[in-house]
């Protein structure tokens, strides 16, 4: 897949929870910056039925897809975009080339 480098114009920061031990010996969870990078964004909406297949109630949740250069991230990481934290719901290696990742983000 060929990506126009001009589309990678949105700054994102990827965080990971890390457990550290403070000087007093207590374990604390903190956010650690894993990666600061540029991303290409694409907004879309999905409808999730939280009440089963026979229910008529659908909940619309806005999600964002972003494309970044390949990095070592996982579904437990969080992404900050324009001061808003998003959780990662899906990570896809585009064409299995290990060049670009398509990440699906949802509001926390």
Write the layout of secondary structure elements.
Blueprint: E1 10-21, E2 27-48, E3 59-69, E4 78-81, E5 84-93, E6 100-107
Antiparallel strand pairs: 1-2, 1-4, 2-3, 3-6, 4-5, 5-6
Descriptive labels:
single chain, 108 residues, Thrombin, subunit H, six-stranded antiparallel β-barrel, 0% helix
Account of the protein in words:
The protein has 108 residues and is mostly beta strands. It has a single domain, classed as Beta Barrel (Thrombin, subunit H). 0% of the residues lie in helices and 62% in strands. A six-stranded antiparallel β-barrel has the order 1-2-3-6-5-4. A hairpin with a 6-residue loop joins strand 5 and strand 6. The chain is elongated. The mean pLDDT is 84.
User: What is the string of SSEs from the N terminus onward?
Assistant: EEEEEE
Q: What is the correct CATH architecture?
A: Beta Barrel
SS field, number of helical segments: 0
Shape: elongated
Work out the helicity level. under 10%
Strand order of the largest sheet: 1-2-3-6-5-4
Mean pLDDT: 84
CATH-defined fold name:
Thrombin, subunit H
Quaternary state reads single chain
Share of residues in strands: over 45%
Low-confidence stretches: none
Q: Tell me the Rg in angstroms.
A: 17 Å
Sheet bearing the most strands, described?
Answer: 6 strands, antiparallel, barrel
- CATH level-four homologous superfamily name: Bacteriophage SPP1 head-tail adaptor protein
Structural class: mainly beta
Number of domains: 1
Count every beta strand, where a strand is a DSSP E run of 2 or more residues. Answer: 6
CATH class: Mainly Beta
N-to-C terminal Cα separation, in Å?
Answer: 30 Å
